Amino acid sequence: MGMGGEQEMREEGNITGGGLEMMEASNGGREYLDDDGKQRRTGTLWTSSAHIITAVIGSGVLSLAWSMAQLGWVAGIVTLLLFSMVTFYTSSLLTDCYRSPDPVHGKRNYTYMAAVKANLGRTQLLLCGVCQYVNLFGTAIGYTITASTSAQAISKSNCFHKKGHGADCRFSETVYMVGFGIIQLFLSQLPDFHQLWWLSIVAAVMSFAYSLIAIGLGMAKVISGSTGTTSLTGTQIGVDVTSAQKVWNTFQALGDIAFAYSYSMILIEIQDTLKSRPAENKVMKKASFIGVSTTTGFYLVCGCLGYAAFGNKAPGNILTGFGFYEPFWLIDFANMCIIVHLLGAYQVFSQPIFAAVEDLFIARYPNQQLFTQEHKVVDSKNFKFSVNIFRLGWRSAFVAVSTVLAILLPFFNDILGFLGSVGFWPLTVYFPVEMYIAQKSIRRGTRKWLLLQTLSFLCFLVSLVAAIGSIEGVMDSLKHYTPFKTKS
């Protein structure tokens, strides 16, 4: 088959006969293609679960003890469980939108935005694009901040161990952010999700490692008896915080928990890596259950043990609360695991932005070699890697801008809370619910329609108050911060 004929079949997205077929590749070899004419997908339940765990168990887990301290035992645990149930439910709705109009045999939607366009039309496409890509970009900034905080913690730990507990071991986070950005310059050249599976698996293992260490350290502190004061309602007005601080911190805690469950914005992209059989939506629902249930278990243990250990004085980042003393090597290892995990998570969240921009330019300028030509760097049997000039420049610019913005706004809890609040309602709840209603043709005013709309409205209120609390936190933090100079 000539290149022209093959290209036509790719554009139509439907190979005659369905399923997988062997077609002649342009280099004279044979290449397996999926039903849409693209290279056969090889993702499984376990690789997609690894992608989800990589995306979900991130820096959000480190702030859960602080969130529990603001909400207390009752509201803290109930809030975690409610967020997990809502996230799993709406994610299950979203998996059916990968293909449309039929969730099993319909046409593939390769991205979250493509699913919105296919199910809701162009009128809501712009809103979705703004919500998704702003949140993905913000997540890249948040992960840069978190990774640099962990790198800074390693330096502090080693400094105290070497010079004594009374030494001045304050460091600026700027140099660590720059270092994280340099590594991302190289990782960002991996073309797509299909070449990220190994990084996601490594990152998922790292997330388990530092979560287990945080749990172990919290348990050791509880067993030792040197714990803080806890209560059913969290921080006490007049003792720990003022009445205004209680309100703002409670709002911000909701945003932090929402951020800890943010992955719906990349669910469709992860689902697009799965094999055609069994049906992608069935596999993705199982992967979502594995991912959400696993992370919720970790979150409950980590948040509750952290709160029990530190009480109402729980730190924003639980690993910094154990001091930078002994066992310094264990805390160093935990923070190194965080850094490795975020190296992968940064890519998982950034790849949809990379793909959207590159696909846009390729569609507009299909004959421009700047956008289409690949220069082979490694071409071995087990590993192939090539570089595209446009991809090199655009992705490098993305990493540079996200790094600079992280340097200007290095506020861990405030940024996480804001990102969680901005992304939770529209991307995790509103669009999945609206697409499900459209796909299933649920009539307005029916019982099911009213229940879905009530769920969406309640989640909107949660996102709104969380955003307000986080913005207030950022404004307060800016009063005490000077970029490139402040050390901590």
Describe this protein with a few key phrases:
single chain, 488 residues, mainly alpha, Amino acid/polyamine transporter I, 2 domains, 15 helices
Number of strands: 6
CATH topology of the largest domain, which one?
Answer: Amino acid/polyamine transporter I
Coarse shape = globular
List the total number of helices: 15
The neighbouring-strand order within the major sheet is 1-2
Overall number of domains: 2
Cα(first) to Cα(last) distance is 63 Å
Main beta-sheet strand count, sense and barrel state? 2 strands, antiparallel
| Secondary structural class | mainly alpha
Mean pLDDT: 80
Strand content: under 5%
The radius of gyration computed from the alpha-carbon positions, rounded to a whole number of angstroms, is: 23 Å
Helix proportion of residues, in percent? Answer: 55-70%
* H-E order: HEEHHEEHHHHHHHHHEEHHH
Q: According to CATH, what is the class of the largest domain?
A: Mainly Alpha
CATH superfamily caption of the largest domain: Amino acid/polyamine transporter I
pLDDT < 50 runs, ≥5 residues: 1-30
Give the name of the CATH architecture of the largest domain: Up-down Bundle
Question: How would you characterize the overall build of this protein?
Answer:
- This protein has 488 residues and is mainly alpha-helical.
- It has 2 domains: 1-40, no CATH class; 43-351 and 409-478, Up-down Bundle (Amino acid/polyamine transporter I).
- It is built from 15 helices and 6 strands.
- A hairpin with a 6-residue loop joins strand 3 and strand 4.
- The longest helix is centred in the first third of the chain and has 39 residues, at 125-163.
- 45% of the residues are buried.
- The strands form 3 sheets. A two-stranded antiparallel ribbon has the order 1-2. It has a two-stranded antiparallel ribbon with strand order 3-4.
- It has helices at residues 3-12, 45-56, 64-95, 112-120, 125-163, 174-187, 197-224, 243-260, 267-271, 280-310, 328-364, 369-372, 389-408, 412-440, 447-478; strands at 21-24, 30-33, 99-100, 107-108, 375-379, 384-387.
